[in-house]
Specification:
- This protein is an all-alpha fold.
- Helix content is 63%, strand content 0%.
- It is elongated and about 50 Å long.
Length: 137
């Protein structure tokens, strides 16, 4: 039986960690769900509640396009995270932040869904920031 322990201060080989895989999987699912919410908003589904006099008021179709594009970008970046690319981590943090802002402004249309996605985006940012970077020799 071989011992795969690493020396103190050294990281295990490979470019993935539990946090990075977690963030990638959550980003893919979150992106697909955001994309589906965008399609539903573009189709003017009866699922959404319209609130009057909201500061960030935009018609439902506009929000739908924003969520559709954001969902595609989030899902693709989540898939790219499996390669361990540093750019994907940086873009992932940025997209999760944009998603938090979009979901904050989406609150009057689907309050519980938006709050859930704000929390998910916070977890994604946490996962991407605490995951160890690839080891360089």
């Amino acid at each position: 039986m071989t011992n795969h322990a690493t020396a103190p201060g050294r990281r295990a080989e490979g470019h993935s960690s539990g946090w990075l895989v977690f963030a990638a999987v959550i980003m893919i699912f979150s992106g697909v769900m955001t994309l589906l919410a965008g399609i539903s908003a573009i189709a003017k589904d009866d699922v959404f509640l319209t609130t009057r006099n909201y500061v960030y008021e935009l018609n439902l179709t506009g929000w739908g396009w924003i969520h559709l594009i954001l969902g595609i970008l989030i899902a693709l970046t989540g898939a790219a995270l499996f390669s361990g690319a540093t750019w994907a981590r940086v873009v992932g943090v940025g997209l999760a932040g944009l998603s938090m802002i979009a979901n904050f402004m989406w609150l009057p249309y689907t309050p519980w869904w938006a709050l859930l996605f704000i929390a998910i985006d916070a977890l994604v940012i946490w996962g991407l920031c605490v995951a160890p970077s690839p080891m360089r020799d």
